[in-house]
Amino acid sequence: MRNHCICCALISAAAIAAAIPPQRPLQQDQTSTTHPSSRLPLVIWHGLGDTYDSDCIVSISSFLNETIGPTYTYNIRLDEDASADRSATFFGNLTDQIQTVCDKIAQEPILRNAEGINAVGFSQGGQFMRAFAERCNNPPVKNLVTFGSQHNGISDFENCNENSWNEFACQAWDGVLKSQTWSSLVQSRLVPAQYFRDPGQDLEDYLAYSNFLADINNERAVKNATYKENLRGLERFVMYMFSEDVTVVPKESAYFDDVVGTGDEAKITKLKDRQLYKEDWLGLRDLDEKGRLEFRVAEGGHMEITDELLRDVFEIMYGTGK
After folding, report:
1. Mind listing the pLDDT tens digit for each residue in 100-114?
2. Is 53 a catalytic residue?
3. Quick one: pLDDT at residue 171?
4. What is residue 90's DSSP assignment?
5. Per annotation, catalytic residue among 123, 155, 210, 253
6. Known active-site residue 4
7. In this structure, how many other beta carbons lie within 10 angstroms of the beta carbon of residue 226?
8. Catalytic residue among 4, 46, 151, 302
9. What pTM value is reported for the model?
10. 303 vs 24, 160, 192, 268, CA distance in Å?
């Protein structure tokens, strides 16, 4: 059985310290099928440190076509150059990045004429794909599937590896991320910091200064009705949490759960017990009551994705008759 393990989807100061790899020649786009299809197009947003044209992302598009037949796919990218696309997963203003993707998709020749799209987001790409649905939704997202995403943010940045070749740089980045999380520089420049949220601390700074997550989760006093209306329009919203995920802290963020503390001392508040759900800030309660919100478990570590798991996703989106 093949394992479509999504490369480099780690939330770590070590990864950020070494985020910009040597440049490589620009390659022709081989990430999309070149013909229209009667099926809804599939749009994929990759995770941290990955690229739109990486072997693991392209293999998923290929497997979709092998499994259910020709289907137009589009792998989201912030830049046609793969090195710049990878760098953008670490550095950039998420408000600007989401708008850039909205504009690109609205102008893409096949997508702009589609009646809707299906969407998959891997790791941080999951909350970004949701942000697309909330903020622009053109064309409208019909089915949204996220894998190991940080819908309720991360409460810690992965520690530096003491054996890292770039430990000094890693420690420097780690210090910036942890001590200046709410500074304008960090919130406008370092991507993982823009979905940092620690419910064990006073959330006042988070609500005041978060550039991304507090907004797309509709947590501020003034709610954005469009966000709720757009998510309510989903036919299905399926969230996968990896059972052995130690990369995302906390892994339950994949379900919008609030987690205070770690290990055996962790106190978990399930989504359905949160005000976000009870007052339906995002339309999640409405989706749930209509049987359109699903919480699923994927066995294994972060981004360990098998053929069988992908077939389940294709069944969700295309009714392949599995």
Report:
1. 999 999 999 999 999
2. no
3. 67
4. T
5. 123
6. no
7. 12
8. 302
9. 0.88
10. 26, 20, 17, 23
